[in-house]
Amino acid sequence: MTQSISLHLLARTPEPGRVKTRLIPALGDEGACDLQRLLVERALELPADTFSERFFWLDDGPDDSLVELAEAHGWTVMEQPAGDLGERMRRIAALGLAESDGVVLIGNDCPALDGDYLAAACEALREQEVVLGPAEDGGYVLLGLRRIDPLLFESLPWGSDRLLALTCERLQQLGWAYGLLPVLWDVDRPEDLPRLASLGIRLGMH
Fold it and tell me: What InterPro entries does the database record attribute to this sequence (predicted)?
């Protein structure tokens, strides 16, 4: 039987001074906001073919142009639930698993994440209960689940270099089979910016 897997993109609404704050010294408020918008747009254009449904979760009110783009690409636009990042992810995963056999959660910080990577995540999720896409900085860029437990989301150091390791420790505590995808990089710090050019992403400095 074919398993249905839904894709959930979590993103911050692009607002100057509020997004990509670690990049503001290099890009300025407007430049960091422009980068956030560009990365979200790129994620919304990812291929749809391996997913039964796709949901775009914005964290702080609608953004007309992003909502329009999302709907044009067949995403269902939602407002993120309340709580810290872990609680929001837990709630979104629980809602997704109520409707489909598996969920894949991604953010917009990883421009190297492409359709092939998503397809590999879905393939891994057919064999494992959990799949993680590791990030070079010690976090993760993708989380795929066929079941859920609050332990995977509570009291974790989101944004730290220990996140992936601690998540794996908790999966071992739960006794759940999990798989790791190839390591990718995300865009959080000024030293990440030159790599954008390799993907054909050009930024105007402000």
Answer: Nucleotide-diphossugar_trans, Trfase_1_rSAM/seldom-assoc
